[in-house]
Each structure stands twice: as C-alpha cells, then as structure tokens.
Amino acid sequence: xxxxxxxxxxxxxxxxxxxxxxxxxxxxxxxxxxxxxxxxxxxxxxxxxxxxxxxxxxxxxxxxxxxxxxxxxxxxxxxxxxxxxxxxxxxxxxxxxxxxxxxxxxxxxxxxxxxxxxxxxxxxxxxxxxxxxxxxxxxxxxxxxxxxxxxxxxxxxxxxxxxxxxxxxxxxxxxxxxxxxxxxxxxxxxxxxxxxxxxxxxxxxxxxxxxxxxxxxxxxxxxxxxxxxxxxxxxxxxxxxxxxxxxxxxxxxxxxxxxxxxxxxxxxxxxxxxxxxxxxxxxxxxxxxxxxxxxxxxxxxxxxxxxxxxxxxxxxxxxxxxxxxxxxxxxxxxxxxxxxxxxxxxxxxxxxxxxxxxxxxxxxxxxxxxxxxxxxxxxxxxxxxxxxxxxxxxxxxxxxxxxxxxxx
Length: 408
Fold this sequence. Notes:
With 408 residues, this protein is mainly alpha-helical.
C-alpha cells in the first residue's frame, strides 16, 4: 500500500485547515496581506455592505413599483438581486486593490484620473440623460458614471502631487492642484452635479490643510468657496432651484419633506421589515432616500447605528494615521476617508432636511452599480494605504514628513 501517496493527498486536502498557513512567518502575497491589512476596518466595511443589502431589500419593492409603472415588469426584489450581483463583482476588486503596493496604485490612479477627466469631457456630448441630468456614458452592457470613479483617483493623484512639495518647496504644486480642481468643477457642473463639485472642492481644501498650507490661504479658500456658492445661486439654475426649495419652500422641496416624514414614521424602533408604506411615495427610495427607508422600517435607532458606523470608519482611519511616516500615505488615506465620510454626511443631511437635495447616494448602502464599484475601488485603495507591517515599530507621537519615499 502506497502510504506516501495517501499521506500526500491528506496533506493537500487539509492544507486549508492548517493553523500555521497564514502565520506571521508566511511571506506569500496573501499571507502578508492578511497580517498587514486593518482587519477591524475591513470588518466595519463588510458590516456596512451587509446592512446596505438589508436596506436595499427593504426599498426594492417601492423602487420596483415606481419604475415598473404598476406592471409586473420588475419583481419586488429586482434591485436587491441586482445589488447582490454588483457586490459579487465589486468586492474582489476591493480585495485585489488592497493587496497592491503603494507605488503601483499611485501610477494606476494617475492613469485612471486622466481617463476619467477625458470621459467627463465627453459626457455633455454623448452622455445618457437620466432625470434631467447627463452624468453617464452608455457602454452597451451598462452605464458608466465618470465622476464617481474619478473621486478615488483624484484623491491619490492629489496626494502624490502635494507630497512632492516636501521634496522641492519651489514647485507651484498648490496652484497647479487648484487649476485641476477648477477644471473638474467646470466639467462636473455641466452635467449638472453641484453636490459632487462640493465634494471635490472640500476634499481638496482638507488635503491642502493636511499638507501644511498657510492658514491665511486656507481661510481665503474657504471664503472663496462661500462666494462660489453665492454666485452659483445667482447664475447656476440647479443651485438656484435646490437652495430656493430648501430655504423658502419654493420649487422642488417636496422630496426632502417627504423623506423627513418617511424617516420619522417608524419612530424609535421602526415599523418592521417590509411594513413601511411611506417609502412608496419617495422618488428614489433605493438610492438617494434609502436612509429614510431605514428610518421607517428599522427605526431611528438603526439610523443612529448607521451614522455611528460611518463615524467609526472615519475615526479609525484618522487615528491609525497618527503614526504613519509617509506624507503621501497620510494625504491619500485621509483624503479617501474624508471623501467617504463627507458623501455619507451630505446624504444623511438631505434625508433629515438640513441640506438641499443633491442626488447623492449613501456609500455602500444605496443601490447602484457604478457607485458600488467606485466605492469598492476607493476602499481598496484605503485598505492598501492603511496596511501596516506588524514587525515595524513607529512612534505614536511623531509624524515624519521629510526624507521618506513618497511612493511607499
């Protein structure tokens, strides 16, 4: 009897159960990733995606009824099934990106940013129009929203540019980055998409502050931003309609009022899964106003839990960056998590009627293929830039800005 062959087969079939397979001595790509990745952050993101699936399942019947026109063209859980498919496509991207070295991600992000800016320029010309906005390019098999994919690539590209200032103070990096942001703002506002314009500008200013820009200049940029909003109100029709509706109850204010009534209808503990009725009156129950659906069916307690989870993710990343030594990594990770948290904050603010409607999704909660894939790319980048060598000792108090490898 060939005992060696049997033993070999037993070892092969039980290798996955070997407790030392992903031990600290494992130097394979997966082994290094397992020990370097922020598993707490990864768990919180998985929790958010799981809760998002539950929320989409709750909102799907209302969305299916609205977009089927009362026919049986859409099953009640049509959007829930599609969301599962999009998650199945997106999550492998997130994990694969999180395994890549920082220098490779920097190069890919620069290429991605250039490609997305070029795509943004094409949107007003050949883009598909949905609900009065032209933000998507039709690829045949689906629609592609360049502004969503540009967001993470923009952050990494800006982080790389701003980190160059540490090596050569004479480089006009701040001014050049401002020109790029202005170009993106013009292209995005043509769609029109005022909400994304605010996100790009706010994230850029936050990254400038982290990079050490003079406080007076930062205050000047803040004032310029307020002036820009005022000018948008007078000369940009979309901003005028949204702000009038929010401040004076004129124009399209029905959406935010209806969202607020839906959110509070469930009280503290909600009406129960599938028991909500006000959600059928929401214009976008599975995307823009899914936070209100959560409130109606699962209660204000669930809304607070979701908000706390977003806050915990932002806090986790920012605290973790306190002992990071690479200025490039600090700017990249901080920019990505600020962008993530700001988008969530704006969506929730619209749903509780403290901000005008902006057509912005709730990250990892709202339904959407482009949104899910773009967010997975962004969080894959975030996981990559927060990876830590478990054997590397860093000072928890001193952040080193000069003399490091910016592509680290």
